[in-house]
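In this supplementary section we document a worked example of the pipeline. Step one takes a protein sequence of length 553 as its only input; no multiple sequence alignment statistics are reported here. Step two produces a three-dimensional model, which step three serialises into structure tokens for compact storage. The input and output of this example are shown verbatim.
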Amino acid sequence: MSRRGTRAAQWTAMLLFGWLASSSSVAFAQERATETPAASIFDPRALLSAVDFDLSKAPTGKPPASSVAPAARKHAGRAILEEGSFILVSAANYWRKYSTFIEDWQFELNWKDQTRKFFNHEGIRLDSNNMRLNWTHSAAGAIYYSFGRSNGLSAGNSFLFSAVGSFFWEYFAEWREVSSINDHIFTSTGGMAIGEPLFQISRHFRNRPGFGNRVVEFLTNPLVAINDLLDGRKRPARTPADDWHDFRVSFGARSGALMDSGSTGTQGSANLDLQLVALPGYGKAGVDHGYSRDTMDVGAHADVSTLGSGVEEFNIGTRATLFGWWKRNVQQDGSQDSQQRHGYELWYGLQVAWDVFQKKPIVPYDGHDLGMKMRWFPRDTPTQYTDKLAAVHLPGPTLSVTRYDGSWRTRLDLSASVDFSMINALAFNAYSANHDIWGVKTTLHNWGFYYALGPRLAGRIETEYRFLRATAGIDYRHFSSLQHGDRNQDLLLDDSPLTDSRLVMSAGLTAALPHSPVFSTVSVERINRFGRFHTTDARTSETRVSYLLGVKF
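The serialised model returned by step three reads:
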């Protein structure tokens, strides 16, 4: 590709990231950092009276003062100090190990080189690091984000902490390197997608009394617990919040998963699923509607499959509905404790999400070598890369509808987004068996993945009747490779486009032990994968059946 084409592609990428950062910050800048309290650790549905909102003006109806914890004080200065200290310590550690990344060094500390980095297309690229090193930037972004959120700042202001933190890291801590487009997106937007759910869930436990809740508060978001401790006597009271949650942990077995050898077998399985609706009054009787500037709904999940002492596969994801419109029309028969409700409630808002999926590597070169001492590492052919994926679901629309019919409760969730992803090229192993792969995209040759944009459509339905719950879900993603942004673009011999897709269909049935937090689940999952590189196609299909025993808390 010509230098002019490369320059145009790079400035397009820069404008894309700039638009994402600016639009997100403007959209959330007016968000209020309202603290809402929560219930006892063994009482998952302790709900107080609904809060009244209006579409045309600020909320006027307010619950009794005794049901609302005082809002956390804003400590912007402390948040800046904490983030600055964290970046300094991280930079010192980075430079302590600087020789590991000498291939990334492209700029000297002089006016000419730094001007090229800040103001030239050469200074911003898709980097050539492995996937694990890249997706963990989201964890750093979540820490940046939590510095703001745990100090009483809004989601919008906290997003600026993750975006600005990424800017300082990429342009000052790593002054020798190109500024990484993928790191900016995973750190800023991915940081928010992880940080907001962990903040909301941690705050839920923070508002509960007892040592056990202090432990869980710290485990879900240590910064919430640490800054709460620093507040001392000025910390807000621990008052139960008007939220709804469904927290579950379970263990069991999964059969049918594709193993390293290509055969099927039975693996151990562990699952953590955390859902929290922060919209006040959810699940309670009332007729109202309004617009919420605060986070309405969050979720986090993690599942791990093991074989012997090793991890065969893991899947982690988070999501947050940051603001939106809501409506409630629910009538309740009898007392407030009655489950005989009729009607519906819904919300439509903006959701951001993040996830990572990884199968166990079966060759040493698949993601383990963090050394950056050459552009392309020699690889055996055919290559043997296993499937993997890391994605930031850029802000997109989401719709949630809950219907009540007596003892029945049904919830439908729909979402759509454009994903910035790192996706394993499914067809690359087969392509490498008969073709020379030297000079293809750097990450494709070295690690088996490429950077991509593409649509994602997802839906999930959940139906509960007394002690039974049935679920079904579908998640479709399409990936198209980003072209002309490689760190070594001028040296590529083959920058041909790649496409992949992933379709996941699932269904499950859960039975709870009456008047107990114990439950058992049986579920089935079907995963269809497709990939293409040049004229080489590849397809895989997996069907898994899981048997789990767990508890709600």
